[in-house]
Amino acid sequence: MSEFSDLLTEYTHRKGTRIYSLAEYCGMERSMMYKVIRGKRMPSSIKTLDKISKFLHLTPSEYQELSTAYKVSLEGRDNYYRRRDIMNFLNNFRNIMDTGVSLLPPRTYFSSDGPNIALTTASEVNQAVYTLVTHLIEGEERRLCIIAPPEFTFLIELLTSLMKEEDSISIDHIMCLNNNEHITSDKKNYNLHCLMKILPLCTCGCSYQPYYYYDNITSRLDTFRLFPYLILTESRALVLSETFETGFMTKQPDFLRLLKNIFSDYRKKARPLLQKISDVSSQLAYVQEFLRGDTSVEYSFQMTPCMTDLLTEEFLEKYIISELPERQTFIHNLMLHVTNTHERHQNRNLILIFSLEGIREFLETGLLEEYPSDIYLPPRPEDRLKLIKRFADECHSGSHRIRMLKHSIGTVKNGANIYITPGAGYLLFTPNGSNSPVYLNIQESGLTNAFLDFFETLDSELFYTQDEALSRLNELVIQFAHQKK
């Protein structure tokens, strides 16, 4: 039996359905329909599933439940919910980054000079967290150390709110990731949701560096652990329970030294989860290094596809602003990157996933997602058109392997752009209200494999055929050319 067959059996019994009549309506042999109901076969297509649903007179919610069970049974439970989570992540990326967190009202902690203070309620814990973080910002200390899961929502939202402009503070954050791909009891991929929780912190002014280690998340939640979490500054420490509802604050020097040594030892054993590459020269060097590795397959997911390999030195001389420091060195390095990227398109199995809406956005604005918009002038319409014509020619010749979406996944502006290979990947996005893209080097293999699997298994119905894509590209080019005459 399968999740689908269990649910289908329940519906047929509940509605008193004659299996012979159901099979006849769906154009199937009765024996085959019995095999479907017993979980030995699956309906051959969504169309067959639709016929079954119509015959059973399923309500919209019942149909949705049966359709989900069908996909779960086809793909496997973990695969289905992990892929669903990634689709939701991409579709809602802008909302995930625009958390809308406002500064919390000022709080004060208990008036106590004691070296140790017991915290017996969640409210007291939150008040202590607020006190520790605000003392850090207002004082001379510049480092915050954390051992806590991203599910500690109060802490993550507080830091996201208060650290937006604190460029002199560094945060080292150690968290536990799941050591397997099984979904949690609430049907979520734990590691992906950890990434979603901490991403807003990666755009703050502070230097935020997350680290990870592995354990079985489900079994961890079933064990007794006294005070597993820690928030630490030079002068204070919070030691917290599993539920974040109890703990204690300490200023005792010998205890602080002990906790600092423990944290230092843990950080050495943990691995970096993400690495933020902020300035444009470092971004360029990073991408060049990233692209040197040999891989069997690569995916570039950008609604406006990367057109770096189509740039020319003449184009850069024309549009890179004259005030850019070390302008000629930058143009030289960028042209080396252009050459390497072009060779990669020619010699690697690199697949570009993009949308017609993304192409249209570039034609209208001239913005190149990969580069800060304050280092170049938007290309003139005729030069934008030349780039897209060159892109269409490369697609037509087969140099660019493309999959053009019928509808954008996520937003074209401020959406997630992902470059992924079997061994590494990076996330690129431009925060709302910013001129500079953020590159995050994804270093955890479970996340890179999850994204790679997602792109490899996207439903073909989401894409135009190759001929349709080229035809629509050409139509858009002609339409834009006429508009600008």
Concise overview:
The protein folds into three domains: 3-75, Orthogonal Bundle (434 Repressor (Amino-terminal Domain)); 116-272, Endonuclease, Chain A, CATH 3.30.870.10; 277-483, Endonuclease Chain A (Endonuclease, Chain A, 2-Layer Sandwich), CATH 3.30.870.10.
Termini distance?
64 Å
Strand percent estimate: 15-25%
Counting helices, strands and paired strands, the structural category is alpha+beta
Summarize the biggest pleated sheet. Answer: 8 strands, mixed
Account of the 3D structure:
This protein is an alpha+beta fold. It folds into three domains: 73 residues, 434 Repressor (Amino-terminal Domain); 157 residues, Endonuclease, Chain A; 207 residues, 2-Layer Sandwich (Endonuclease, Chain A). It is built from 19 helices and 15 strands. An eight-stranded mixed sheet has the order 1-7-6-5-2-3-4-8, sandwiched between helices. The longest helix has 21 residues. The model has no long low-confidence stretch (mean pLDDT 89).
Name a few traits of the molecule.
single chain; 485 residues; alpha+beta; 434 Repressor (Amino-terminal Domain); Endonuclease, Chain A; 3 domains; eight-stranded mixed beta sheet; seven-stranded mixed beta sheet; 19 helices; 15 strands; 47% helix
List the helices and strands and how they pair.
Blueprint lengths: L2 H12 L4 H8 L3 H8 L8 H10 L4 H16 L1 H15 L1 H5 L18 E4 L2 H17 L4 E5 L5 H10 L7 E9 L11 H9 L8 E9 L1 H4 L8 E4 L4 E4 L6 E4 L2 H17 L1 E2 L1 E4 L2 H11 L7 E4 L11 H7 L7 H21 L2 E6 H10 L15 H17 L3 E5 L11 E4 L4 E5 L8 E5 L2 H12 L9 H18 L2
Parallel strand pairs: 2-3, 3-4, 10-11, 11-12
Antiparallel strand pairs: 1-7, 2-5, 4-8, 5-6, 6-7, 9-15, 10-13, 13-14, 14-15
